[in-house]
Amino acid sequence: MAYNLLKGKRGIIFGALDEKSIAWKVAQVAHAEGATFVLSNAPLAMRMGEINKLAEATGSQIVPADATSVEDLTNLFTQAQEILGGKIDFVLHSIGMSPNIRKNKPYGDLNYDWFMKSIDVSALSFHKVMHVAEKLDAMNEYGSILALSYIAAQRVFPDYTDMAQAKAMLESIARSYGHRFGKLKKVRVNTISQSPTKTTAGTGVGGFDAFFDYADKMSPLGNASAEDCANYCVTLFSDFTRQVTMQNLMHDGGFSSMGISEDVVEVLEANAPKN
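The structure corresponding to this sequence follows.
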């Protein structure tokens, strides 16, 4: 059921790769709630994905952009305002990539050039997005800028390696730029710390199935799905959350507040050595 939460609002959605992507789900829900938006992704990711299908289904245009390039982002925000007919009300940053994870490099043996690439793509790009939006005065007052994070920014998940540092930086940037953008334009900036989600990127992390099942057993509500995350994103784009900013918002079925759960205890007891 749609509620017209985003009627008349204009946005930019980064990172929709395929139907498993959270950004893809956000685009679908935002469209159903009355928004118009431009879709964007890096040229390489666009060749790998199915973004044209999403654009057709939502009546959207695609503007390719490397989110690490200020020049590309300037072109994107300029074109988006022309295409949509005005300033931007919401932005979704759903961008993350670690060459070290892709190449199975252990945390104690990271390639530091790749580490810097992880930081640039997954965190600094968020700062660049907001830097360009500010310089172009592209955001409407009380606009909403949102990035997707993960609890590994605060806690150790060994196979998440350098992406943990990237997410920690992402959340720090949201606080610092949230203060700046709030004072300048009353634009709010937040991150969502989402449950492990079976996206194309997520399942590329080593041991994903194990910590997906663990988080599901730990969470009173179970893991939050990509669809649920999309619904949450849309509420943060809407006028009902105009005073929420500089927050890392946990969307994880309660996982982040748990110490241990009955379900996990049962599994441990069932697998304990018998005396």
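The radius of gyration is 19 Å.
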